[in-house]
Amino acid sequence: DEWQRLHAQPLPATSPTPRAGLVVATASAQSVRVSFDYALLVDPAESIDLRNNLVIAEIMYNPIGGDAYEYVELANIGAVTLDLTGLRFSAGITFTFGSTLLGPGERIVVARDPVSFAARYGARGIKLAAGAFTGKLDNGGERLALTDAEGREVLGFTFGDNAPWPSRPDGLGSSLELDDPRGDTQDPGNWRASAEFGGSPGRAGMGPVRTIVINEVLAHSDLPLEDAIELHNLTDAAADLSGWFLSDSAADLRKFRLPEGTIVQPGGYVVFYEQQFNTNNLRVPFALSSSQGDEVHLTAADQAGNLTYFIDGVDFGPSLSGVSFGRFPNGLGPLVAMSRLTFGTDVKPGDPPEKLADFRAGTGAENAYPKVGPIVLSQIMYHPPFGGDEFLELANLSTQPVPLYDPAAPTNTWKVAGGVEFVFPPDTVLAAGERVLVVGLAPSVFRQKYALPAALQLFGPWTGQLDNAGESVELDQPDQPQPASPQGVLVPYVRVERVRYDNRPPWPILADGHGPPLKRVALAAYGDDPTNWTAELVDPTRDTDADGLPDNWELAHALDPNRAADAAQDKDGDGLTNLAEYLSGTDPRDPLSRLQLEFFPRDGDAVGLRLRAVAGRSYTVEYRDSLSDGG
What we know:
By secondary structure, the chain is mainly β.
């Protein structure tokens, strides 16, 4: 057959491709065979560019004022112009882009109600997509996805409104912003609440504002003290805070407006006292809770009182009387219980009530060292070697006995919380300098397994399991019960100590399954500091019980370095003693791991030898021709 080209029609590279077709017609009816030779009209590189360089950068899913102010912002983070024509949201909301190009570094906003959006944000400097999306962004979080004109997914992820996702975008004034555009959009840690009140559509968000911080808070006060909030200027320039707001509620940020003329000098402090921010206004109360814990928010505002930026926000748990929470290190770290008040005066708990005026005269100061003890976590075995068991060691670093209960209400006892949970029994007392263990097994089983002395107090079993990848462990003590309410009697639990360990540096990595536990270096030093913890193997040649087994080897295989008898025992029942297993390099906990010589007859007087050994280990086999001395 001979083929003849009837027509050729080149198409420009910019031709739209959502729909295409070819029509063949002849002037009169005739029988023909037709073949089309065509090029792919969609350049695969365009989809690759979209996948690599287009991101959802901001989501306003629960705006103040109603759903009409919802929007989604897309950003081109690449160096080439992207063609969004035909791109559509295929999950979460419904919207299809018309003819749209997005240049390098450019952003485009898709709004639910463009008219309402423009009324709130204006149009200058914002590229707004033509049209409105249909549907509604889910306030509880949902999946968002974009597909191209051919139905291929370009990007997709699921956002949420509960921890570890930021909470402020859920109706409290912030949008949800992508932190690192090249990072993982599936990672909640790569999303943040916008610092701008109402979000930052059309431009990159400014990120967290680290200029003024809430540095110290006193929430449990008795005369001559009263509740107080200290602010600290981290910058080297004076800061005018006139007209800004403090509040104890994220849902009502305008509770207390800072007075005109509130200037904080470079590196300086300012303190606001309860007589200023808590005016006994029943409609807008501002009273910090010492029994349930509370929160404090600092927000910037313009002269008209319109909120502009979220400056800082902190939360804290219940507290003992006269104990403040402060950032450690000063101005930078999280809030922790302080060893003493540092509001700028020497007034302290227990002073005469008439010194209240002196306390109110304080203008702030650098924070003290954290409060430590009297009971601390001294060891954490979170990832024991095979066959071992988790445990926590607590130590009384004081010179006095410490009851692990409220003497005024003895049934209210201390507890371990966090990764594992345990409530101490009534009447538990730790003597001065005493150390005790809290374990995940029944104490009697743990004591027998490790041959621990009867004088050592053991508590357990706890519920839960310590995470090998790291988590938080804390020790809490009960405070005075609060008066009965419709919810019953409230027993505040005050955090005595929290340690957030990890299996990665700067935390000691030897504690991650290699034998030793985490061990506190200095009991009286701050516990939530990786530099105050170590994990050291003992001297590799040390053999405390002189049984031929090095202490390191015994610890790694769940044996007792203080008990010589275990050298002659057969832990796995394979016929070899623990000492023989050590000498042969096998595992005393695994019956299949053993050194074994097997003899079998061969032709004539020959004998065969088969050696079962451990891979990667060298062995020496010696022989002689005769068993007689003269051989």
